[in-house]
Design a protein that fits this description.
The protein has 489 residues and is α/β, with parallel strands linked by helices. The protein contains 16 helices and 24 strands.
């Protein structure tokens, strides 16, 4: 496809070369992914590229470069390829990528989920509900990677829940070409802020909640909230929002007449009452449009019921039968790394969960307290190069809700793991709960398992189904549940 067609009607300046250049090998922000015939997009401060990667990208075969007009380019352009300048290279990249792949999102129903917690769980629930109730072919894009049903889509290794625009549009095109009817994706705050979802036609946008997280990226809760709310400013046709979260009122103000609500406490279009929670799951009564439906899900906890309500509302808005969707809930497989359970040979229960914020950790531990008959042992840490203000808070929450805590690493990135533990520890000390420090995550899990007695519950929190530890700039293979099973073998 010609570069001029990719950017048609989008303000740009051809600084050198021929805009009729044919782009035949896609586009990328990442220098190592450049192939002959590709468009290289020089995103400022991008780790795998940026303006500093132009020379290598051209050497690898890039036939054109898209850059920001204020980028630090060489004073004299020495390359022979076409150079196009734009005011916002991320916005232009989203336009170009969508056109290159034929605007694929418009060929499918798209559900985009945003909020601090619940995005991955709801994405799995939507996929499961539509597959079980309707036999639908559903694509999933998120924290656990990208897939169509059980078929993984090979992609370069990444830590992004919402892929960059070129990758996202490629995935959507791949799903469309394989006759996928619906796609559910996670819309992170940074994904929205960095315009990765621009030119994705979202049929239903789901808002789960807003609690403290990602202040390292956004600076303030107001900035964080506004990034989330941008999904509901012309980026989706209809919204499904959590009526129990005060932010939902702001979404309703932005989209009058376009919002459907769900909740456990506040009046809502989809509401749950008569909630019963035990170790096997949750039972409740769904209220919608004057009717009642007995419902159950194989996951314990009010937060899981809220996720189920969001799932039902989103799928029902897409036109699927509500009775069939409700019946499908109880047959859903567990979501990897989300309240995922394992019984050890010694009789202890291990729960692996992604809880990595104060709110999510408190909710998981509160749910466990509702059915625990033995002690609660919590293994957790806090991510490096992330919001440091939540560290002592999470220590306090874990200490108040646990009988024993094991402090360990959770993606230390560029920080000293022991320094992170030093910042968590004061919150724990204040509770008087006994705790053990072990920066090596495998050794920490082993310590917790060795300390567990029959009927104890060991919560391994923070990473869920993530397949790696981020240490420095390395991705080291590591999955919590796999390690638990290996240690118990």
């Amino acid at each position: 496809m010609k570069l001029s067609a990719l950017l048609d009607a989008h303000a740009h300046h051809v600084a050198q070369g021929d805009a009729e250049t044919q782009i035949t090998a896609g586009m990328t922000f990442d220098v190592p992914q450049v192939r002959p015939g590709a468009l290289y997009i020089a995103v400022p401060r991008h780790e795998e590229g940026g303006p500093g990667g132009i020379a290598e990208a051209v050497a690898r075969g890039a036939v054109a470069v898209l850059a920001q007009d204020d980028a630090p380019l060489p004073a004299e352009w020495a390359h022979t390829v076409c150079l196009v300048l734009v005011a916002d290279v991320r916005a232009a990249a989203a336009v170009a990528a969508s056109r290159y792949h034929g605007d694929p999102s418009r060929a499918m129903d798209v559900v985009a989920i945003t909020g601090t917690n619940g995005k991955t769980s709801i994405s799995y629930m939507v996929e499961s509900a539509l597959r079980i109730a309707e036999g639908a072919k559903v694509g999933v894009i998120g924290t656990s990677g990208s897939r169509i049903g059980g078929d993984r889509i090979p992609m370069p290794r990444s830590v992004l829940s919402t892929p960059e625009a070129p990758d996202l549009q490629y995935l959507l095109g791949h799903m469309r070409d394989r006759r996928t009817g619906s796609v559910v994706l996670e819309a992170t705050s940074m994904g929205l802020l960095q315009r990765r979802l621009d030119h994705v036609a979202v049929d239903v946008g789901v808002f789960t909640n807003l609690t403290q997280d990602h202040l390292d990226d956004h600076g303030t809760m107001e900035n964080y909230k506004n990034a989330k709310l941008s999904l509901f400013e012309g980026r989706c046709d209809r919204a499904v929002v959590n009526a129990d979260d005060p932010v939902s009122a702001e979404i309703q103000a932005r989209m009058p007449g376009g919002v459907t609500t769900y909740g456990l406490d506040a009046p809502a279009d989809y509401r749950a009452t008569d909630l019963v929670v035990d170790a096997a799951g949750s039972r409740f009564t769904l209220h919608h449009d004057g009717r009642k439906y007995p419902a159950a899900i194989p996951v314990p906890g009010p937060f899981s019921v809220a996720n189920a309500l969001a799932t039902l509302a989103a799928c029902h808005l897409l036109g699927y039968d509500l009775q069939g969707l409700v019946a499908a809930l109880d047959r859903m497989p567990p979501t990897p790394g989300r309240f995922e359970r394992y019984r050890t040979p010694q009789g202890a229960c291990v729960i692996v969960d992604y809880a990595h914020s104060p709110d999510s950790l408190e909710k998981v531990l509160a749910t466990i307290a509702g059915f625990a008959t033995g002690r609660v042992i919590t293994v957790f840490g806090c991510g490096g190069d992330r919001d440091i203000t939540k560290r002592a808070i999470m220590g306090k929450i874990a200490g108040e809700r646990s009988d024993l805590c094991v402090l360990t690493s959770d993606n230390p990135r560029g920080e000293d793991p022991e320094a992170i533990l030093d910042q968590i520890a004061p919150g724990l000390v204040a509770t008087g709960t006994h705790f053990h420090r072990e920066a090596d995550r495998r050794s920490a899990i082993a310590y917790a398992l060795s300390a567990a007695r029959p009927d104890d519950i060991v919560l391994v929190a923070g990473k869920g189904s993530e397949p790696h530890q981020i240490v420095g700039d390395r991705l080291i293979p590591f999955t919590d549940m796999a390690v638990v099973r290996e240690l118990c073998a």
